Amino acid sequence: MTGAMANDTGGFSDVTKAVTVFGGNAIEPLQAQFLSLNEWDSREAVRFRSYQLPTNEGN
């Protein structure tokens, strides 16, 4: 739903805020589940970069 474009100005509010919330509510918990594989395997089998919003630089 975060990729949807609203046709009116009332639409989905601030997309940046929506993506930030999505990162905290969906991405980070999934990463935590995958990171638990490291403990199970006793080595670093999985690694993630910090979740950052993309920038529009160069566009």
Q: What is the topology?
A:
Layout: H1 15-41
What does this structure look like?
The protein starts with 14 loop residues before the first helix and ends in an 18-residue tail after the last helix. The radius of gyration is 16 Å and the shape is elongated. Helices cover 46% and strands 0% of the residues. It is built from 1 helix and no strands.
Short overview:
This protein has about 60 residues and is mainly alpha-helical. Helices cover about 45% and strands about 0% of the residues.
Question: Fraction of residues in helices?
Answer: 40-55%
User: SSE order, as H and E?
Assistant: H
Number of distinct helices: 1
Q: How is the biggest beta sheet arranged?
A: none
**Overall pLDDT, averaged?**
80
- Category from helices, strands and their pairing: mainly alpha
Overall, the morphology is elongated
- Give the number of DSSP strands: 0
Strand content: under 5%
**Weakly predicted, low-confidence segments:** none
Radius of gyration: 16 Å
The CA-CA distance between the termini, in Å, is 24 Å
